[in-house]
Amino acid sequence: MVAIEQADPTGQLVDYIAASRYEHLPAHVVDAVKKSFLDTIGAGIAGRSTEIGRIVTGMARENGGKPEVALWTEGARVPTAEAAFANAVMARCRELDDVHEGSSRVGMGHGGHVNVMLVPSALATVESLRGATNGKDLIVALAVGGDLIPRLRMAAG
After folding, report:
1. What residues have CB less than 8 Å from 80, skipping those under 6 apart?
2. pLDDT, mean over the chain
């Protein structure tokens, strides 16, 4: 009996992520990541003035816990998960954030609002780490996440 080697999709994803380096990114990708980073933060700042923005920042402050990460619009420090959630919600409130429209193969709208998932969680993680973080590593993380999220969503159909 011949053993059939099966593809390990999770292993392939891990290998792809682990092999990703800043030096491998084309200049236009680095530029796009930087613009989407700023765009997402700007959308979050604008979203703070909405009713939902006020509610979610109030909840993050009221829930208490270890003051680890800043809310983008307040300066108040809240637990990492609270900051990531509140900042992400604020970035969606006014629908100013970017969106991946999907593809003709799987239908439009299947890519999702990628950077509101990535930027708030990445920034909260970086801010909660003890010690310096390399900006190039953050760019790589956002580029890889921005590549994988729409692909996985579209693959799921």
Report:
1. 68, 69, 124, 125, 127, 128
2. 87
Task: Locate 67 and state its tokens.
Answer: 């003051």
Q: Where are the domains positioned within the chain?
A: 25-156
pTM: 0.83
Inter-CA distances, 68 with 15, 64, 75, 86, 115, Å: 31, 11, 11, 14, 22
First CA to last CA distance, the chain: 36
Query: Does residue 154 register a pLDDT over 80?
Result: no
Neighbours of 142 (CB within 10 A): 24
Amino acid identity, position 78: V
pLDDT, tens digit, 9 for 90 and up, residues 13-36: 899 999 999 999 999 999 999 999
In one letter, which amino acid is 113? H
